[in-house]
């Protein structure tokens, strides 16, 4: 079921002069503004990669991948019922989370007709007790009933592989491994490993060798350092 968050973001990006839920060939497009097709994807990018590749053959496409920076959780006593508790979730999203999805999008982005935007959003998440027949209900067993947009914060825009360096705010040496990349991102090592894969496949870095057991990378476009004779 489509959430309020998805509906609100479609309306936000369509603007006053756009349309939502428009048919283009065999695809239904979330929003259309002029000659720009807009797809809002709160779930994983892997689910729309084939669709986006096809659309980019003839159209300009904007993929909107929101990242939930903050989430206020409201629990109800029943679907559509009374509020029993409210709290802020301790989990916070960060822009570098985009790399976790981009590993499945490396054959789609970059493309001359494709742009990705990543807005940081604050949402209200409504939960209610889960009374599914196939599982035993517990007091803390809640399911998400809806998500609603509270606010839209900073937005990052990516049109080419080099733009992905916005997700790496820290400094890197000319040759770096994923531990150093993790430090520069302010992210865990496992995510830096996924980032390195995405950056390599999209043409933003290249592997240049190993240091011990770790792969070394350098940014594409920078002159390679000559080895001493």
From TrEMBL:
<dbReference type="Pfam" id="PF26351">
    <property type="entry name" value="DUF8091"/>
</dbReference>
<dbReference type="InterPro" id="IPR058404">
    <property type="entry name" value="DUF8091"/>
</dbReference>
<feature type="domain" description="DUF8091">
    <location>
        <begin position="3"/>
        <end position="158"/>
    </location>
</feature>
<protein>
    <recommendedName>
        <fullName>DUF8091 domain-containing protein</fullName>
    </recommendedName>
</protein>
